[in-house]
């Protein structure tokens, strides 16, 4: 199967099309005046805790408070800064379930808390967040506050799984969990180590920033759509990535040089005068998607 990525950037938006055997299978769109929030990590402040809703509302500096379901609160004291309760004792959040399946937490109003956006705000609703912070890299995902090592289920070979787990255990520091992504399969120990070092660098930068910042504050910003698609979807079966923006081409080339230099060769700059999406027939496919009936 031939798989290709085409990226078109205009004055108002960036569009990313993924084609399989010359057929459009995925389309990503990012408006330049609408900032992407999913993946961002905030040092927030708890505004309300509502047991009846099984949720809390957290001020992250957005127009509307973020929605934090109790089910998205994961035990990890490093995530929840301790506050002094009315009895004079320090408390960080712990949760437990009762016989009815309801979850109770020791979360308190005005408590500082780290949250990560998992769903964009919509209409009058604020973003949905979780306390299970994860920093994604090209090959690995860093999960602070845990100690497990997870491996993608798409890596089938038991010897390869064993090799990857052994590498991660030798690298991993206590208090950090690691998820090994599918694209890590067959990668060298040096390549994996470089990805791990970059993730730890991001974490340390975030940790230092959060200590200085007063809630609410953005302490980690995830990649913009184009870069995140390249990070998450650029697998060995991608034959080429064609970009019509000189600025974006250089940015993505620099990113790949840092995380996976061997994949830079897949990048191509589109220089023909005819619009990229029109010349590849992608514009027609997008028009079909917007019709009242989609066959």
Description:
The chain is α+β, with helices and mostly antiparallel strands and 295 residues long. It has six helices and 19 strands. The chain has helices at 158-171, 189-212, 225-233, 246-259, 276-279, 282-289, and strands at 3-9, 13-20, 23-31, 41-50, 55-59, 66-69, 83-84, 90-91, 95-97, 103-105, 112-119, 128-130, 135-136, 140-144, 149-151, 176-180, 217-220, 238-243, 267-269. Strands 4, 5, 6, 11, 12 and 17 form a six-stranded antiparallel sheet that branches. A five-stranded mixed sheet has the order 3-2-1-18-19, with helices on both faces. It has a four-stranded mixed sheet with strand order 13-14-16-15, with helices on one face. A hairpin with a 5-residue loop joins strand 9 and strand 10. Helix 1 packs across helix 2. The protein is globular and about 60 Å long.
């Amino acid at each position: 199967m031939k798989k290709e990525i085409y990226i078109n950037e205009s004055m108002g938006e960036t569009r990313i099309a993924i084609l399989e055997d010359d057929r459009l299978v995925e389309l990503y769109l990012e408006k330049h005046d609408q900032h992407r929030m999913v993946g961002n990590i905030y040092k927030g402040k708890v505004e309300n805790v509502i047991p009846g809703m099984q949720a809390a509302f957290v001020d992250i500096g957005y127009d509307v408070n973020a929605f934090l379901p109790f089910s998205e609160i994961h035990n990890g004291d490093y995530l929840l800064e301790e506050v002094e309760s009315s009895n004079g004792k320090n408390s960080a959040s712990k949760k437990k379930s009762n016989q009815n399946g309801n979850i109770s937490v020791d979360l308190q109003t005005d408590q500082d808390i780290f949250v990560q956006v998992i769903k964009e705000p919509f209409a009058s609703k604020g973003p949905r967040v979780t306390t299970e912070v994860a920093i994604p890299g090209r090959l690995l995902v860093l999960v602070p506050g845990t100690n497990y090592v997870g491996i993608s289920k798409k890596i089938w070979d038991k010897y390869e799984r064993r090799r990857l787990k052994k590498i991660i255990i030798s690298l991993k520091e206590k208090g950090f969990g690691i998820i090994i992504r599918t694209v890590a399969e067959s990668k060298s120990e040096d390549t994996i180590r470089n990805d791990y070092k970059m993730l730890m660098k991001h974490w340390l930068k975030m940790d230092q920033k959060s200590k200085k910042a007063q809630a609410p504050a953005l302490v980690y910003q995830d990649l913009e759509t184009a870069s995140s698609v390249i990070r998450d979807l650029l697998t060995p079966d991608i034959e080429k990535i064609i970009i019509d923006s000189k600025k974006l081409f250089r940015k993505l080339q620099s990113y790949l040089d840092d995380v996976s230099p061997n994949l830079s060769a897949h990048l191509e700059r589109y220089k023909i005068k005819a619009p990229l999406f029109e010349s590849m027939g992608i514009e027609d496919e997008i028009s079909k998607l917007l019709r009242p009936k989609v066959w």
